[in-house]
Amino acid sequence: MNNYKQLVVGAVAICLLTGLFTESLAQRRPNTHFVPYSSVSFGGGTSTYFGELNPYSTPLRSLFNLPRWNLGLGYTRQFTPHFAARVAFTWARIVGDDYTFSKSNPQKYALQYVTNLNFRNDVKEFAITGIYNFIEDGRNSDVRAKFTPYLFGGLALVAHSPETMPGDSLQQAYKLDKWVKLQPLHTEGQGQPGYQKPYSLVTLAIPVGIGARYRLNDNFNIGAEIGYRMTLTNYLDDVGGAYPNPDAVQGLGAALADRRNESIAARTGDSRAADLQQLRQSNPDLFASSARGGGAKKLPRDGYLLTTFTIQYIIPTKIKCPPIK
User: Which of 68-72, 130-134, 145-149, 318-322 has the lowest mean pLDDT?
Assistant: First the structure.
């Protein structure tokens, strides 16, 4: 029994000495045998929607219009000094409002001002991405690069459900909550003969972006990244085509499909009456147009931009000793 104890103590001592020796060499020797390592991250930041209610055609204006928030968790595996893979879950809120976008200049942004749609959407994203680090890591996590800019790209599964604020008059008339889910209302006639089928509340997206991480100590990094998600749907905002015929949508669906004549902006409570009167005189065609979103024009798919700041915990790698028999 004593011999067995001595063997165990000796093996533990060898493991400890080997670990110390390996760590010392890792600080001095070049990267000859990379040891993969993992990290978990938590972070948050801003989210910005792009689509019919926040157009791609005005990127700078749209970038700073109605930003909201995102929160996320991730797991990253560093396979080589340059390449890593990450799985991450992100919950982001995106918002769009024609009135807010156009109220500073109703004549210049007449289409958005007249259309007068609004939405919010809580997007749940599960993404798998590949990461390329411009600066290679050392041979293990303890000697990883101090500062590393990187590129990333991949594929994401996105669940969403757009909602709209109906305004006081509709809330009272239909006894509604503050926010109303839009997809079940089929605001563009979806599901009716001659119209498209209802859009899915699950879609794919392509996340691409840039980022950088900074090593705080052996166990923690901080990071920042900007990533754009081009989705495969045009209905993050419930807007993608034309106004439906009057017989295709009735009741609340019809009221929320066409909001051009509302005199009060639903989200802000501001009066639109005076500007609407001027626009009826200067742009009467907008009040008779069939184009609710893109109409006959083929517009880019909806997307969103995430700016994220993270804290990353490096999972320690253990030195494995052979079992004692």
Answer: 318-322
Contact 232, 205 (CB under 8 A): yes
What SS3 string covers 81-142?
CCEEEEEEEEEEEEEEEHHHHHCCCCCCCHHHHHHCCEEEEEEEEEEEEEEEECCCCCCCHH
Q: pTM for the full model?
A: 0.86
Amino acid (one-letter) located at 108: K
In this structure, the number of other CB atoms found within 10 A of the CB of residue 147 comes to: 11
In this model, does residue 28 exceed pLDDT 80? no
pLDDT in tens, 68-79: 999 999 999 999
Q: Which residues contact 237 (CB under 8 A, 6 or more apart)?
A: 49, 51, 52, 53, 96, 117, 119, 121, 162, 293, 302
Dist. CA 239–CA 190, nearest whole Å: 12
pLDDT value of position 3: 38
End-to-end CA distance of the chain: 13
* Residue 148 to residue 154: CA distance in whole angstroms: 19
Q: Which domains does the chain have, with CATH numbers?
A: 2-23+36-315 (2.40.160.20)
